[in-house]
């Protein structure tokens, strides 16, 4: 049986544990998570192990990226199961701070990202979100001081924001995106999928099918506007409420009008019942 990882709950304890790894000339990969781990998270850990000799996984449900109307209190928390999964993958350290450790009394400094954080996608519907993400990830990077950090491509705009932040602020961390892990029918794995009823779970695969349809049409030479309109119609016909269904430049997230505009990415966010789902696909 694999040994349980060392669990650090304070910054001094984390620093001691990381320093001990550094003394042994270890390279360190960080996998930031909010817990409720699934096979998609496990794939991030496995990629981290290929990119560094030691792995730190953070588990912290970050309150500053949730609006008052969102699901912070109800967000799934599965600590025992999470630790069992991480032990099975031989993770070295789990960084599990409380809110007071991350945001102590008097905390007054926040990161306000621009660029891809203001692309008019997630930020249009969750204007608070990327400030919360950038601040907590900036803290995680300075706390752990990893050589590399692994993020899933499912949260594609977040990946672009974090990559830009690490580069702009010279944080010395190489941010690596890991491909989206999907269920057999194409639904992107997400901690929020547990909110879906059995019927909604079957309906949710329309996001994957619509993106695949639109991407195929664009690759085949169709104009972007009708190809994207057809996919959006598929999603709406299934009963989902679209926040956005757009194709953007895959690196800058700038709007595009033609396949010639550069590498393309389709991004979608939609509500199914009370659950909000996001996904994306390369064209």
UniProtKB/TrEMBL annotation:
Annotated positions binding beta-alanine: 65
Protein name from the UniProt record: Pantothenate synthetase
UniProt keyword ATP-binding present: yes
Enzyme Commission numbers on file: 6.3.2.1
Top EC class of this enzyme: ligase
Gene Ontology terms, MF aspect: ATP binding; pantoate-beta-alanine ligase activity
Subunit (UniProt): Homodimer.
GO terms under cellular component: cytosol
Organism field: Bradyrhizobium yuanmingense
Gene: panC
